[in-house]
Design a protein that fits this description.
There is one protein chain. 54% of the residues lie in helices and 21% in strands. Strand 5 and strand 6 form a beta hairpin. The chain folds into 2 domains: 135 residues, no CATH class; 182 residues, no CATH class. The protein contains 12 helices and 10 strands. The protein has 351 residues and is α+β, with helices and mostly antiparallel strands. The strands form 2 sheets. It has a 6-stranded mixed sheet with strand order 5-6-2-1-8-9.
Length: 351
């Protein structure tokens, strides 16, 4: 019997070495608790996470002092929890942190505030805390309260999404129409490209053919990209948009009598359509309203383009009819300024 002691001691010692100590081990069954309350256009989120597992996720020992560093906590949470208010992604700001004992375990308590800009009709949360980087067995017991309704769900590795509410058809149309208008008026590269096309237009009929070709083309690629049928890296798309500006402005500078062809507007319109889709790719579109969302967003873009054309083209025609020599240099010099913007954008985006 005594001869068995030594082998048994070796086996026991080996097994004890394989078991991680409590100070460095993952919990492997961590829990979390989410309470989200929507009041008007503000959203308050109380998130409770296993403190030890939170430390592993941040790759550091997490204590009260670390939780005070709100920027680190914000960055991690916003990259692992996506909240969409009426399809638009919103990000949280950490307002307060604390530590609370739950079931004799320390939990990080994080209070976040979200600005929704308007009272949301529908809320969707995608939850990925711990599940892909430290503890796949993690579960979060989530509750969302909005408009007197309450939705509860246990979020796990296999089921990471929770939603509440329903956006109306008319509200969805209005939202994406306004979004399209804002996008075209803040998309300075698109605006400068359209103006560059106008410099090479001779008549109202000609500009209508250019705008129509550009519209048809970007509508096609906008739909293909949004529906994830065709995907092109954003860096390539943005660089190609800058190149389209450079190409058209060079024609305007060195061949002022040239007449831009609809096929040119169509070809570059295909590229610009992928650029328009970049905004929608950051959103969580409702599958039930996908077609209407695309259509109203595109209509918003077209209304914006028509406003730009209506304001700029009459001025261009007027300048072309003037006989003053100083006026003759306005279009080439403006084209040179637009060319400079195109070159700067190209080098910023391509390199």
């Amino acid at each position: 019997m005594k001869k068995l002691w030594f082998p048994m001691l070796i086996i026991f010692f080996s097994l004890s070495c394989l078991v991680p100590s409590s100070t460095s081990a993952h919990t492997n069954n961590s829990e979390g608790f989410s309470t989200i309350e929507v009041s008007g256009n503000s959203l308050n989120y109380e998130l409770k996470l296993d403190l030890e597992e939170f430390g592993h996720a941040l790759n550091k020992e997490t204590n009260q002092k670390e939780l005070i560093n709100h920027k680190i906590v914000e960055k991690y949470i916003n990259s692992h929890i996506k909240i969409y208010a009426d399809s638009q992604l919103i990000e949280g700001t950490v307002k307060n942190t604390d530590i609370e004992m739950i079931k004799e375990r320390p939990f990080a308590v994080i209070e976040l505030a979200y600005d929704c800009k308007h009272k949301p009709d529908k809320l969707i949360m995608e939850y990925n805390i711990f599940m892909d980087d430290s503890d796949p067995s993690h579960a979060n017991f989530a509750t969302i309260k909005m408009d007197g309704k309450q939705q509860e769900k246990i979020l796990t590795f296999e089921s990471r999404e929770l939603e509440i509410g329903e956006i109306s058809f008319l509200q969805n149309l209005k939202q994406f129409l306004v979004l399209g208008l804002k996008h075209i008026f803040t998309g300075y590269d698109h605006i400068l490209f359209v103006i560059s096309l106008l410099f090479g237009a001779k008549t109202i009929r000609h500009i209508l053919s250019l705008v129509t070709a550009f519209t048809v083309a970007h509508s096609i690629t906008l739909a293909l990209a949004t529906l994830d049928i065709v995907h092109i890296p954003s860096r390539f798309v943005e660089s190609a948009i800058a190149l389209s500006i450079i190409y058209v402005t060079l024609i305007n500078i060195f061949n002022q009598d040239s007449k831009h062809r609809p096929w040119l507007a169509f070809g570059f319109g295909l590229i610009h359509g992928f650029g328009f889709a970049g905004l929608l790719s950051e959103m969580r579109l409702d599958t039930n309203n996908m077609a209407s969302s695309l259509l109203s967003f595109n209509i918003g873009i077209e209304i914006g383009q028509l406003i730009i054309v209506s304001l700029v083209f009459p001025i261009i025609l007027w300048m072309k009819k003037l006989s003053l020599k100083s006026i003759k240099w306005v279009i080439p010099s403006t084209s040179a300024a637009i060319l400079a913007f195109g070159l700067v954008w190209f080098f910023q985006r391509a390199f």
